[in-house]
Known about the structure:
Elements: E1 4-6, E2 9-12, E3 15-18, H1 23-32, E4 36-41, H2 48-55, E5 59-64, H3 75-86, E6 92-95, H4 99-110, E7 116-120, H5 122-139
Helix pairs in contact: 1-2, 2-3, 4-5
Amino acid sequence: xxxxxxxxxxxxxxxGLDTVTYSNWxxxxxxxxxxxxxxxxxxxxxxxxxxxxxxxxxxKAFVCYRPDNPRALSESDLADAVQIAVGSHPxxxxxxxxxxxxxxxxxxxxxxxxxxxxxxxxxxxxSIKKAWRHFENTRQ
Length: 140
């Protein structure tokens, strides 16, 4: 799995991993993900509503998951917050019960055409990378 690091984000082809946890990073990230899929997990004490204001207009879909941390926001609570931020934008929102199922859904929805951006908490990145490796290995 060959990732390169750029401006706080890991990229591989149309797939990106990012560790954005603060709203100012969300504006940097927004340049990288225009019109793509966002896979997101956050801590409950972060200003995720502000991040969503910046990210929602750029996305076709959100897949929400809960990072493995007691402080994490649940996938359903994050999906609810995304729904509120989405308003009338045509954005699909999914609450995935596990990081593995979040990656599976994102890959199935995006195919090879949409960029995928994994963003939010560092606590979720290890499980997302593990799930991504699993699917990458089964696709070869």
